[in-house]
Amino acid sequence: MTSTKAIVDASAAGSWRLGDLSVNRLGFGAMRVTGSAAFDLGAPSERETAIGVLRRAVELGVNHIDTAAIYFSRLRSANELINTALAPYSDELVIATKVGPGRDASGEWYSASPEQLRGQVEENLRQLGRDHLDVVNLRRMPAVSSISEHFGVLAELREEGLIRHLGVSNVTVEHLAEAQAIAPVVCVQNRFGLGLQEHDEVLARCGEQGIAFVPFFAIAGETRERGAAARAGEDERVAEVAQAHGASPAQVRLAWTLHQGPHVLAIPGTGNREHLEENVAAGALRLTTEELAKLGPLG
């Protein structure tokens, strides 16, 4: 039995490379530091609480933070909080952002045209207080069939030195190949988790090519931005495995995610220090072959 009660460093999950950047496989998603979610689904945490969570994440060995300029609520901006909490940034800290979807000042969504991507990249740079971005993921919007034109713009910004590495999000293996024909891809962010295995083919292709696969909603699943707390109940198999390890169901789901391959990263997000420590501890949870088989493709 693997206990997850003690405070564990993020390095317990092992590491992977995003291009020439090494990161611990257990990272942090910044969406929820703006509130219960980035999209105004509840009152945000106190500002100092959010800043404290970000600083605690780095203290716990988290060196991969996922964020975006679109992560803001009425009172909070994830990028600004990161800047306040962590600048000047450590050389070991990798901050990944995403572009493609956008939100105007009123919070209304739009899908960026290729011509708007430079502005989105520059907005992330300003908010984070950086002269370049470590990783920028192009998130494909559902109505976009080909990503070549959008990705080509980001490849140009990479050549200019504004971006170090490129990734893609919400893509198929065909989209991945399309992007790779233009510039190197170091990571893929797709929705994936226990019971959400619609991107198995992309995960496998990433493993074959040594590309990081970075699931989002690995804990929340179908509840998406509403988070794990919105679950009506946990599958009894998850609960049984959690009990055997003295862990929470969320920790089991994170551990299951990390067990899908050494190239799989996790970026759970929270605005709560206790939940942060639990998430990081999940990186040390080792599931047996029998437990993985027992969990299976849960819905």
Number of strands: 11
What string, H for helix and E for strand, traces the elements in order? EEEHEHEEEHEHEHEHEHHHH
Structural class: alpha/beta
Radius of gyration: 18 Å
Low-confidence sequence ranges: 221-233
Descriptive account of the structure:
The chain contains ten helices and eleven strands. The protein is of the alpha/beta class and 299 residues long. The chain has a single domain (10-286), classed as Alpha-Beta Barrel (TIM Barrel). The strands form three sheets. The protein has a seven-stranded parallel β-sheet with strand order 3-4-5-8-9-10-11, covered by helices on one side. The relative contact order is 0.17. Residues 221-233 have low confidence and may be disordered.
Quick description:
This protein has a single domain (10-286), classed as Alpha-Beta Barrel (TIM Barrel). Helices cover 34% and strands 16% of the residues. The protein contains 10 helices and 11 strands.
Structure keywords:
globular, two-stranded antiparallel sheet, 299 residues, TIM Barrel, 10 helices, 11 strands, 34% helix, alpha/beta, seven-stranded parallel beta sheet
Please give the structural blueprint.
Elements: E1 15-18, E2 21-24, E3 28-29, H1 47-59, E4 64-66, H2 78-86, E5 94-99, E6 101-103, E7 109-111, H3 117-128, E8 133-139, H4 148-160, E9 163-169, H5 173-180, E10 187-191, H6 200-209, E11 212-216, H7 236-245, H8 249-258, H9 273-281, H10 289-295
Parallel strand pairs: 3-4, 4-5, 5-8, 8-9, 9-10, 10-11
Antiparallel strand pairs: 1-2, 6-7
Helix pairs in contact: 1-2, 1-9, 7-8
